[in-house]
Every structure is written in structure tokens, then in C-alpha cells.
Design goal:
By secondary structure, the protein is mainly α. Helix content is about 65%, strand content about 0%.
Length: about 300
């Protein structure tokens, strides 16, 4: 499949954004002849990701200021700015920074939606518009990183619990908006390869005990047969328990790359009088187990 059509395993948003960026900028596609041998397109992509990171800091600064106060906002911005792991992603050329900006925009929408449901000021159309925007952001995030799409589950759960008397129609609208965004791409992938997410669909069984290492990715015509006497779900359960155990024991305590994660974990354990803070905390608590399972399986 990958030989026939190389791009069916990758979501389209980030490559399209980079392609548009390189089209707009007056860039020469020749590497410098002297050290440090910079290649202008790589430099442009790195600068673009660093601008996304700065935009993320600004977005979360103002969100934190709305939820807490200026002191907490400045402290949060400084800690985020000083976290080495985020700078590594900002210079890597990966889509991580774009996904984080989309997630911060999603937090803004959920904050405004929950506050409007609790203290109506702008009317019903504003609520439904925010719910639709949440679904669209989730869809764009899914088409940036497929695994991001699983956060539609905590999103629906959050909207369905905390968004007032219209919570069920709002949750349904968010899901429909999400589906409208991703369905054309899934149809395109299925038409090309017979799989909704291309070769990424195989991620759930990759590195299970039947497909260890790079065996699956190097198979031209893989046969998905489980040996006699073994449950068809056994490879999935085995992979789930092995990977989730490793994530909980090794990665969760240092998922931000340093001691900075201690601030986040401590914050999750606190109760707040402000309902908006309390409910956004629940949303993050909904997201964490989903992230652990998806990281382990995908």
C-alpha cells in the first residue's frame, strides 16, 4: 500500500500548511556551502513552529488570566516558555506545536461554552456555534495527528455533562461537526487503500507479539491470522497491558521531560471554587486515560 500511494498513511493538514508556507515565502532551495550548512526550507519550518509555540504561550496566558489571575498567568507562561521539551518539538519540524495550538483553542471554546451555559449572555446561537467550532477543531486536529481524534470522546462527555439544559444537542452537534470534517478524508483513504486511515489503521496491532519490531511495516501482503488456540483479541490485550504498564511506570511521571510535570499533576489533585476551573480540570482528567490508552495501542 505504501509503495502504491505513499501519502495515505499521513494526515493532510500539517503538510498542506507547510506547503502553503513554502509557496508564500521567497525561499531558495539550496543549502549553504559553509558551516553550519543551513537548508532554508528547514529553517523556515523551524521558525514557523517556534512562532506556533509563542502563540500557544500567549493563548494559554490569556486563558489562565481569565480562569485565575495575572500572577498565575505569568507563572504559567514562564514555566511553559522554560520547558525544554516544548522547544525541542518547536525545532523538530513535527506537527506537535500545531496540535497543541489546536488543543489550546479547544480549551478556550470549552471554557466559553461552559460559562455561557451557566451564565447565559449571548444566546442559544452562540452556544451552538461554539459546540460546532469544538467539533471542527477536533476534526482539524485529527487530520493533523490521527491519534488526536480520540479526544472526541472526552469532549462529548464534557459537553454532555457540564453544558446546561441543551447539553445533549450540543454534544451531538460537536460530534457531527467532527465527523463532517474527517469523513471526506476517510472516504478518500478507503477508496485508495481499503482502509479509513491508510496504513495508520494497522497501528493498533503493530508491535503486538504477532507483529514484533518492524515486521508488519515491511510486509507487502500481511496475513492477519492468529494461531489456533489463541483468542483473536489476545494480541491486543497483551499489547495493552504491556504498553500501559510501561507508560504509567516510566512516562507519566516525566511526560513534560522534567520536574515541570509536578506542577500539572499537583494541580489536577486540587479542588477549586471557580466552576470553570473545576470543570476544565475534569476535562483534562477525562483526556488523560484516553491519551494513555491511545499512546500504548497506537
Amino acid at each position: 500500500i505504501r509503495t502504491m500511494h505513499p501519502d495515505i498513511s499521513n494526515p493532510p493538514v500539517y503538510p498542506v500548511v507547510l506547503a502553503g508556507l513554502l509557496k508564500v515565502l521567497p525561499i531558495e532551495y539550496t543549502a549553504s556551502s559553509s558551516p553550519p550548512f543551513r537548508y532554508p526550507p528547514e529553517l523556515a519550518i523551524g521558525v514557523f513552529n517556534q512562532l506556533l509555540f509563542l502563540g500557544l504561550i500567549v493563548s494559554l496566558f490569556f486563558l489562565t488570566k481569565q480562569l485565575f489571575d495575572g500572577t498565575v498567568a505569568w507563572l504559567s507562561a514562564i514555566i511553559l516558555f522554560g520547558t525544554e521539551l516544548f522547544w525541542r518539538f518547536a525545532g523538530s519540524g513535527l506537527s506537535t506545536m500545531l496540535v497543541m495550538v489546536l488543543f489550546s483553542a479547544l480549551l478556550w471554546c470549552l471554557f466559553l461554552l461552559e460559562r455561557e451555559a451557566r451564565e447565559p449572555k449571548r444566546g442559544q446561537a452562540w452556544q451552538f456555534g461554539l459546540a460546532a467550532l469544538c467539533g471542527v477543531l477536533m476534526g482539524i486536529g485529527c487530520l493533523t495527528r490521527y491519534s488526536f481524534g480520540w479526544f472526541i470522546l472526552p469532549l462529548i462527555l464534557y459537553v454532555g455533562i457540564f453544558c446546561g439544559p441543551r447539553r445533549l444537542p450540543l454534544a451531538l452537534l460537536a460530534f457531527v461537526s467532527f465527523a463532517v470534517v474527517i469523513t471526506p478524508w476517510m472516504i478518500r483513504n478507503y477508496w485508495l487503500s481499503g482502509l479509513p486511515f491508510g496504513t495508520a489503521t494497522y497501528a493498533v496491532i503493530d508491535n503486538s507479539f504477532l507483529w514484533q519490531g518492524n515486521k508488519l511495516m515491511r510486509s507487502l501482503a500481511p496475513r492477519f491470522e492468529v494461531p489456533v488456540g489463541i483468542s483473536p483479541l489476545a494480541p491486543l490485550w497483551n499489547k495493552f497491558f504491556a504498553t500501559v504498564k510501561a507508560i504509567l511506570a516510566q512516562e507519566v511521571p516525566k511526560f513534560s521531560g522534567s520536574w515541570v510535570s509536578a506542577f500539572f499533576l499537583a494541580g489536577l489533585m486540587m479542588n477549586f471554587r471557580n466552576l470553570s476551573i473545576q470543570r476544565l480540570r475534569y476535562f483534562l482528567l477525562f483526556c488523560l486515560p484516553v491519551a494513555v490508552v491511545v499512546q500504548g495501542m497506537g
